[in-house]
Design a protein that fits this description.
D-Maltodextrin-Binding Protein, domain 2; eleven-stranded mixed β-sheet; 11 strands; alpha/beta
């Protein structure tokens, strides 16, 4: 018996620490997460979760926030969602789902000390990653644009109102992109530039297109400036550096009139509406997303951490607390309650011919 015990002890010592000591190894079943995170971030999360939850089947379903909202609208009509959790782009949707009774409350201990961004004190949603809406330009073409009478904008205001930029600016579509919707909702607030900001965008003939297309137009000189997520620019810079061909023709502008920070949230679906009725596992995943390990992955995904104690920043970014001081802010309640009218204003003022 002593020999058998010794043998078993040796086997346990030889096992990888992650499998021997996995805190969440007893969690089983399936959890489906709807998310707007980029695929490479999903891949990193999936790999880490497979080690943290070795017996839990965690499946990510990717889609832009707008597309996911459309999908969820159809599912809501049936009374049952196709997911158990959501990681979407902006808190306004969290407010909407909470009010409609679709979410499960999970109170994380000492969240007020842990987080530097707002969260739901009843535990219905928490910020997990912070996206940052900025401007971007091509440093190599500044003199070329200047010779044409074009000054690279240093503010969101100039982006829309400097008429020399007419036909030379680009941004995303708030009807499909949650982060772009958040930026538009912020910029047209009465305490910022008001709805007239959209008139400025229209007059300046803003192009509505994907981030990759907009970046390509910066590089070729078709655009002088674009409104885009910081993470999209940082990703391009890091990949170029890793490939041994550093880029000097793309860079962020942190607007002097403020950035727009979008703390993207995690939500757990109420048990009676969830796809797999696996609340214990969802709570564990939610808690893990607010762990140091997960927050380091957020940084690797070129987004900012929600942790108050986190001093690390994404590749070639700037201090997160400095950005918080420069944050224009979004009235999330307004963005929720007036989503339809904001989208209608956008369509009427910017995209209608």
């Amino acid at each position: 018996m002593k020999k058998l015990f010794a043998l078993l002890l040796c086997v346990m010592l030889l096992l990888p620490a992650s499998s021997a000591l996995a805190v969440n190894a007893d969690l089983t079943g399936k959890v489906v997460i709807y998310t707007s995170m980029y695929q490479f971030v999903i891949d990193m999360m999936s790999e880490a979760m497979a080690k943290e939850f070795p017996n839990l089947d965690v499946e990510f379903f990717y889609g832009g926030t707008g597309a996911l909202q459309q999908k969820l609208t159809g599912e809501i009509e049936t009374g049952k969602l196709g997911c158990d959790m959501m990681l979407v782009a902006e808190p306004a949707y969290s407010l909407e789902l909470k009010e409609a009774g679709w979410l499960h409350s999970y109170v994380i201990k000492d969240a007020d000390k842990l987080l530097r961004f707002p969260y739901d004190e009843e535990g219905y949603w928490y910020p997990v990653r912070v996206c940052n809406m900025v401007l971007a330009y091509n440093p190599e073409k500044v003199d070329e644009w200047a010779a044409k009478g074009v000054t690279i904008p240093k503010t969101f205001k100039d982006f829309a109102y400097d008429t020399n930029l007419k036909g030379l600016i680009s941004m995303g579509n708030p009807l499909s992109s949650g982060t772009t919707y958040a930026a538009v909702a912020s910029l047209i607030q009465d305490d910022h530039y008001g709805p007239a900001y959209l008139d400025g965008l229209r007059a300046n003939e803003v192009m509505i297109e994907s981030g990759s297309t907009a970046i390509a137009k910066l590089e070729t000189g078709e655009c002088a400036a674009i409104m885009i997520l910081e993470e999209s620019i940082l990703k391009v810079l890091k990949e170029a550096q890793d490939a041994g061909t550093p880029k000097t023709n793309v860079a962020c502008i942190y607007p002097e009139d403020g950035v727009v920070l979008i703390p993207s949230t995690v939500m757990t679906v109420a048990e009676d509406h969830s796809a797999n009725v696996n609340i214990e596992a969802c709570e564990a995943v939610e808690k893990w997303l607010l762990s140091e390990e997960a927050q380091k992955l957020i940084l690797e995904g070129y987004m900012h951490s929600v942790f108050a104690s986190m001093t690390e920043i994404p590749f070639q970014s700037v201090d997160t607390n400095w950005l918080i001081e420069k944050d224009l802010g979004v009235d999330w309640e307004n963005a929720y309650q007036n989503r339809e009218s904001i989208n209608q204003l956008w369509t009427e003022k910017v995209t209608t011919k």
